[in-house]
Amino acid sequence: MLFKNVNDVQTRMEQAGYIPSPEISTIVFLAQETQKPVLIEGPAGVGKTELAKSIAACLERQMIRLQCYEGLDESKALYEWAYAKQLLYTQMLKEKINDVISDTASLAQAVDEIARHEDAFFSDRFLQTRPLLSAITSKDPVVLLIDEVDKSDPEFEAFLLELLSDFQVTIPELGTIAAQSRPFVVLTSNNYRDMSDALKRRCIHLYIDYPAIETEKEIVRLKIPGIEERLLDKVVQTVARIRELDLKKKPCISETLDWARSLMILQQDEITEAVISRTLNTLCKHKTDYGVVRANIGQLIKA
Amino acid sequence: MVNLILKFVSCCRAADMRISTAEVIDCLGQLAFMDTCGEPLFQTILRANFAKSRREQGIFNRLYHLFFHEMQSGLNPESVFPEKTQAGQPPAPEPGMTELLRQFKERPDDAFFTKNQGDTLDRALMEFLGGSPLPFIAEVQKIHTQDEQASPLFRSNLGQLSSRLEIMLRINRLKTRMVQFLGAHDAWVNKDVRSVTAALNRRLDKALEFLNTDPRPDNAGLRETGSHTLHYKTLGQIPFSNLTPEEIKAVKEIIDKLVRKLEEISSRRFSAASRGMVDVKKTIQRSVKYLGVPLEIVHKARPLRKGKIVALCDVSGSVWSTARFMLNILYSLKTCFSRVKSHVFIERPFDVTSFFMSHDANEAIKRILNDTRINYNARTDYGMAFQQFRDHHFQELDKKTTLIIIGDARSNYFNPRESLLEAMRNRCRRLIWLNPEQEKFWGTGDSEMLKYRDHCNEARACGNLNQLMAFIETLVL
Q1: Per-residue confidence band for B356, with pLDDT thresholds at 50, 70 and 90
Q2: Which residues of chain A are modeled with pLDDT < 70?
Q3: Quick one: closest CA in B to A289, which residue?
Q4: Is pLDDT of B79 > 70?
């Protein structure tokens, strides 16, 4: 069921376990109404992918995900012919093919006869659909998540332009395939490189930053219902201070949740230097980051 | 409403934001979707359509505040924010402001406005006073992008400063004229006129503030890593500029080892990734061996997807010690990239790629140092080097190129021209700045590093072996 208004987005997303800011709710509603893709920027771990999942859950749609990386091309993102299957079929149907061309008088006639049947080998049966084609050929509308689009090559970005503006693709052997239903498209970017103006023009832009302390508390409360208020306050404050340090990877929301859970399992209700040291591996994922946090541990406790 | 949005868009474009007509249409369409449009919602919709990256949001917010909160004339607040009547709403225009401005402009005794009609700048300031900031924003933008004279005899950083000073003087002159105008027309000096004059003075102060605050993009995606693995405890920590000849030899050996290791890893990775689509032609050819049965499926080898590198190295003083190691590594690893081009500069860039093409890296570095065409006694001027690079080598940058700048960003107080760095960033895939100085010295004295950092995709200190190894591993792997 579609969102009725911005407040409806807010309420239903919260029910689905995602706490959106008013800005996020507005953009999601506008994207639905205008059928435009949303380009989400923000540091890793602030809930960009999670937002797409929540939208899919709220709209009761299937989510199709395309993970981008350097070297991603159409054969991995859109479609590929099952060449091996086609070759095996030609071998198995050799006799039948011989029958088809047995009555022909010349080579040219034989080729024409084969050409009349080539649809049999370039049909849906031999087409391996990849996420983008699956999303636009799906009868029911889906949520299409194109994750980390900044990691893809400029060629792939250019290819996306056609898809995102017309929601159709052209397969030479089959013709143009238009979307049966327009997917709700979410693109995410970690700012590894700047996206082209052409791509940005086709999208509504949304920037998600690390949540404010109160929002992060709400998220932890929602995900870990039994957490004590005093511990919650200390956990969130400490993580916020750790994020200010010069780290290779700043702790994201899921790491805050992991840390809070670990502290609860270990039955710690105070955050001391020793506690941080022992549980640091739930927050930091780089050896050098351990060193930086340990060097500033006093500050984290004192502040 | 449409006119208002269009005026705002014109201001954004004057400040070098790229907003297309399609985006304006989208924005107006989205505003129409909303039943009620409070200011936060209005601002969200405008920002989502006009500022399409975090970098642009800071500039957008600044212009939004100026246009919708400071320039209240010509803006009917009720039409934009219908349900808002309290704080945060743009103040209503001062009554009589337009009339006072008209009289001020048409003073018969003011030769300045009657004879020449003022020049572009005066007209821009008068329009700013009248509530239309567009021409003034365009004038300020000109300052940010104006070129310095590339004279070989005399160079100065005064181009931008003098333009800025000129506007400041005009603003002050306008203020003085306003006072004179009121003095000469005693009848006007009543309570209403004083409040209008105060409002006009506030606007002139805003114009000054706008002029003197440089727009700084929010560089949210900046990779800035101060911490790194300590590969070598002693040798790895010594700044390149302090290495003894024996230590240099040891560092070179370590770099050679690193290069071999990286080449091996990278070639393994590419060979694994090169399995592409099925090569039908070759598969059919091979099937002949098996009586026509395609038992052996052959895949097309995908061309290696490797980046192009353009290095721009400051070769003055202590920076050269880092630049030489960096160039050495880059050319030793040239098989890992599809193209490596390098330029050295002190005041202007000089293409040294050919040295590395015809000699091994160490020999090439020796020859560069002895090349008489490079004036090693000149004073470093980053702004001029960037300007010359833009004029002569910009075509080398494309969306597959990683531009690596190696320099301490100490520009001898010459104009830093950071807008040129932004232009380079927009042309290439990634812009990485390696600074041989540690972070705590960035921005001190004549260092322009904090300004340049706002325009880089990655900025890191790279003054010793450990830092160089950490960087080169992330670049290749």
Answers
A1: confident
A2: 302-303
A3: B227
A4: no
Per CB-CB distance under 8 Å, the chain A contacts of B301 are none
Are residues B250 and B360 located together in one domain of the fold?
yes
Whether residue B420 lies inside any domain: the answer is: yes
- pLDDT of B80 reads 53
Least Cα separation, residue A73 to chain B (angstroms): 10
Among B30, B51, B430, beta carbon nearest to A34: B30
- A168-171 vs A204-207, strand pairing mode: unpaired
Q: How far apart are CA A292 and CA A286, in angstroms?
A: 10
Is the pLDDT confidence value at B264 over 60? Answer: yes
- Residue B402 domain-assigned (yes or no): yes
Q: Which domain holds residue B160?
A: 97-212
- Of B160, B181, B212, which marks where a domain is finished? B212
* Partner residue facing A201 (CB), from B23, B51, B430: B23
Instruction: Flag whether residue A26 sits within 8 Å of chain B, measured between CB atoms.
Output: yes
B52, B80, B108 - which closes a domain: B80
Give tens-digit pLDDT for B127-156. 888 888 888 888 888 888 777 666 655 666
Least confident segment among B107-116, B228-237, B341-350, B443-452: B107-116
Q: Is residue B208 part of a domain?
A: yes
Is domain A6-71+131-207 given the CATH code 3.90.226.10 in the classification? no
- Domain total for chain B? 3
**CB-based contacts of A11: which residues, under 8 Å, 6+ apart?**
none
pTM of the full predicted structure?
0.79
Report how far residue A168's alpha carbon sits from residue A175's, in angstroms, rounded to the nearest whole number.
Answer: 10
Q: Supply the DSSP string of B134-160, one letter for each residue.
A: HHHHHHHHHHHHPPPP--SS---SHHH
Q: Nearest chain B Cα to A22, which residue?
A: B41
H-helix or E-strand containing B352?
A: none
d(C-alpha B64, C-alpha B37), whole Å: 16
Do both B247 and B376 map to the same domain?
Answer: yes
The amino acid occupying position A268 is Q
Interval B281-309: pLDDT, tens = 788 778 777 777 777 778 776 555 568 88
Best A9, A30, A150 member to test B by mutation, with max B CBs in 10 Å, is A30
* pLDDT for B210 beyond 60: yes
Cα of A77 vs its chain's centroid, Å: 13
Q: Is the residue at B9 inside a domain?
A: yes
Q: Are A237 and A270 in contact (CB under 8 A)?
A: no
The rounded distance, in Å, linking the Cα atoms of B435 and B318 is 11
B49-53, B305-309, B350-354: least confidently modelled range: B305-309
Choose among B48, B57, B227: nearest Cβ to A204. Answer: B48
